[in-house]
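Quick one:
INPUT:
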């Protein structure tokens, strides 16, 4: 069994437990529930840099990245840096994140927030909304076409943007549908952890132009972004390169300045 299978098995158990602890009604009563759409897709289309910066303490591929930072400082640092939006890992077991991280980031900022999670159930979309997310991630490798359709349509009804993540042509072919806003290509194979930016390049021509194209993972240089822009990418999801430093916001700021100077 690969790591992704393990994560999904644990996630199914976690969602059952969460549902029994917090009823849907309570999530819907969150003061954050009725917020208007705050579109990451539009922010990316209008941006010169297209950076989405991530909060990630650890990961199965890297174990520890940074355990000492405070999510509020990271969030305000990223917002000051001028990134288009922030991705917040909320999985606890494998990534050391939580829904409270999302809530803290929401309280501190106004830019679009992505709940970075292994979504398998509509309940997690209600949680995302209730804790302040504007965008959700759907991972094609763990969902059927039917599930992608149902979850993305439900997300749209909650005024959440949808970023659909693929890693190969087969996942892409089953996923293209109008209820998605952005198509992300993960350069990291979540089953083996191999990373190659060639994955984004190879899949770029197969993504219809009406979706904002996002390249995810393993991006650490200005040159890589310039290269990916030539393949039509408008969004660049960067985690470790910023999070491994003692001041992710300051590093994101410098990175964006260099990018915009080119
Ligand atoms: O830290 P990196 O290599 O810059 O990657 C960030 C992000 O793309 C990565 O964390 C990610 C992409 N898709 C995911 C799905 C689940 C968990 C994590 C991810």
């Amino acid at each position: 069994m690969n790591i992704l299978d393990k994560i999904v098995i644990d996630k199914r158990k976690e969602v059952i437990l969460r549902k029994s602890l917090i009823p849907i009604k309570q999530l819907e009563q969150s003061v954050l529930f009725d917020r208007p759409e705050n579109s990451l897709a539009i922010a990316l289309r209008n941006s010169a840099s297209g950076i989405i910066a991530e909060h990630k303490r650890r990961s199965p591929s890297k174990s520890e990245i940074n355990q000492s930072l405070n999510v509020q400082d990271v969030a305000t640092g990223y917002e000051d840096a001028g990134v288009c939006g922030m991705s917040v890992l909320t999985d606890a077991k494998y990534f050391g994140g939580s829904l409270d991280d999302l809530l803290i980031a929401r309280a501190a900022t106004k830019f679009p927030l992505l709940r970075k999670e292994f979504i398998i159930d509509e309940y997690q979309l209600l949680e995302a909304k209730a804790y302040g997310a504007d965008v959700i991630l759907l991972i094609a490798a763990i969902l059927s076409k039917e599930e992608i359709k149902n979850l993305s349509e439900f997300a749209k009804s909650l005024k959440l943007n949808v970023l659909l993540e693929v890693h190969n042509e087969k996942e892409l072919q089953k996923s293209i549908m109008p209820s998605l806003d952005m198509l992300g290509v993960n350069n990291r194979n979540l089953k083996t952890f191999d990373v190659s930016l060639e994955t984004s390049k190879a899949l770029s021509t197969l993504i219809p132009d009406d979706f904002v194209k996002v390249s995810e993972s393993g991006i650490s240089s200005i040159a890589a972004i310039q290269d990916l822009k030539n393949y039509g990418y408008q969004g660049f999801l960067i985690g470790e390169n910023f999070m491994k430093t003692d001041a992710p916001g300051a590093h994101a700021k410098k990175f964006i300045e260099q990018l915009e100077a080119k």
